[in-house]
Amino acid sequence: MDLKINLAPSHHEEIQEYQDRIFYYLTHQTRKTYLNAQFNAALLKLNEDGAILVIDYKMKILPKTAREIKQEFFGKKGWALHTVLLYTKSRENSEINIQAIDHWSTDARQDAYFTASSLHSVMESLEIKPKWISIISDNGPHYHNSELMIIMSKWYEWYEVQVKKWIFLEAGEAKTTVDSHHAQVCNL
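and the corresponding structure tokens:
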């Protein structure tokens, strides 16, 4: 039933606004479903030779309190928190193992170099390096830039690890398991 036919023209603008909101909500839900399917597809391809890295930044961690009004929040210096969730598959029983690796910095900048050093430390800390990795991240400028891609192109030379795929999720649309980890870290 078309509400515009049954309601006075004075309500048409409001009806259009509600229709737009419903449309935006449905597109958000569709994107979320698609992005979750991407993660699940990556997990299905995970074998004993590979690893999946789900990486994300926490915008900033404030040293005083997490309950500040927006005016107090912006413009403050905080700590950068970069998290790497490392998914691997056990050779013994094919279970998926998940390891959370947090990197903190008092410099709140989130750039390619801090990202690269965070990923480097993960690779250096692994006793058994995977033969390949897939990376899942948002599409932020700290990941989606030429400097980091050039650095990542050297991974096979440095670590003998092939970067098989990098899945860029739409910024602000995808909630990954890293967001749940960050919620736990911020409540400590």
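(Above: one complete record from the training split.) The chain has a mean pLDDT of 79.
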